[in-house]
Amino acid sequence: MSTSGLFAGGAWVQGGEALDVKNKYSGAALGSVATARPEDVEAAIASAHKHAEVMAEMPVHKRAEILLRAADLIKQRKEALARTIAAEAGKALKIARVEIDRSALTFMLAAEEARRIHGETLPLDAVPGGEGYFGFWLRRPVGVVGAITPFNFPLNLVAHKVAPALAAGNSLVLKPAEQTPLTAVALFEILLEAGVPPGAINLLHGDGAVVGDAIVTDPRVAKVSFTGSAAVGKIILGRAGIKKVTLELGNSSPVIVAPDADLDVVAKRCAFGAFVYSGQVCISVQRIYGDKRVFEPLSERLVKATEAMVVGDPLDEKTDIGPMIAEKEAERIDGWVKEAQAAGAKVLTGGKRQGPVYWPTMLSGAKAGMKVMDQEVFAPVASVIACDDFEESLRQANATGYGLQAGVFTRDIGRALQAIKKLDFGGVVINDIPTFRADHMPYGGNKQSGLGREGLRFAIEEMTNIQMVAIKS
């Protein structure tokens, strides 16, 4: 393999200008990858287009075998992959190991779902004029899938696009995040070793406005799957043209705490959900609505759970929270917190920055109109808000342009059902945090949180077209 880490047209190629990758905590150099030149982008898309038929004609059992081999190789290289993620993404090593396990499972689930892709018969004589016809529909791969992935899960969110694309019989062009390209390179080495036809998968590094836009706008790319910010998602939707698009975007995840909830459990889970990976998860806990009857004890427990988090080098086994992806992001959230303080919010704990590290921070007194409430913080900051009653908590939780996932803590089945009915979110998690995700469940948002759903079966549906067949007897 070339040290460039650029794979296009069935081979590792030298590419253009180098993109340096650094340890997000220490700043030490980790390596570099070459960015894609226009000719590299063309070679990648042309190769994917050429090999789309190869993938479509590959028997299902062979696709499944490749995916299972990839899962095994991921498990075999768990520690090396975890250390790469901890270094280039700044994710705590113990959390990175969980990501590796989930990624292997994602490929295993994709192999299972590959064997379940099917259609149905349709009684065409159910309508006048359908007499004498036999009908059925089936699913066919779309062709070329263009995948654009973020830095926060540099293996598993890539897996959630690559694995279903291959399971469905598609070819692929992937542009991973510029901050975390080394993990994607390691995955491509695994995929090639597992037996994916080299020309069917292509890996391009570079600026999203250049490389990403080229993938999105090329008419040979039949499907775009993007995970990232709502702002970029809107641009993609406007640029893609007539093709299938899945957008997994942001959130300002609310948690609603009823007066009957177990506050110790709530506090521990909310601290984890708000601060794991420095809050850089689209379903991180951000807004915690507590009934006024339990607001004070809830706040006290949240502070205690927050202060129990260990901040430090992500490669240290004891660390819970490492750096943010870049120092400018730590500076950004520091400014947001100071702005909220100036408008009346109070820092209960945290509110401290050291270089790229921002300490886990719990606020009270935050209100609508503050960035920490209205926008996705994507940082280790959460706010606890007192509400008059459960209904008011639901109303405030819904008062957002986002709608990815929400969490509700209650022992009352009536309240749980009320929340499920009222909350306009793609996922509602009862008695746990919105940060929960099982890799096979339908995952995606309403409103500004996106279009379509991921989760292996559901991603495969998004990456296939229904073909109707009518046969006249």
Short description:
40% of the residues lie in helices and 21% in strands. It has 473 residues and is of the alpha/beta class.
Mean pLDDT across the residues is 97
Give me the Rg, rounded.
23 Å
Counting DSSP E segments of at least 2 residues, the number of strands comes to 22
For the biggest β-sheet, the strand order reads 14-17-18-13-12-19-20
CATH-level-4 superfamily name of the largest domain? Aldehyde Dehydrogenase, Chain A, domain 1
Q: Structural class, please? A: alpha/beta
Question: Quick one: overall form?
Answer: globular
Q: Give me the CATH fold name of the largest domain.
A: Aldehyde Dehydrogenase, Chain A, domain 1
Helix content range:
25-40%
What number of structural domains do the residues give? 2
CATH uppermost class of the largest domain = Alpha Beta
**What is the straight-line distance between the termini?**
56 Å
Largest sheet: 7 strands, mixed
- Percentage of residues in strands: 15-25%
The low-pLDDT segments are none
Under the CATH scheme, which architecture of the largest domain would be assigned?
Answer: 3-Layer(aba) Sandwich
Q: Report the total helices.
A: 15
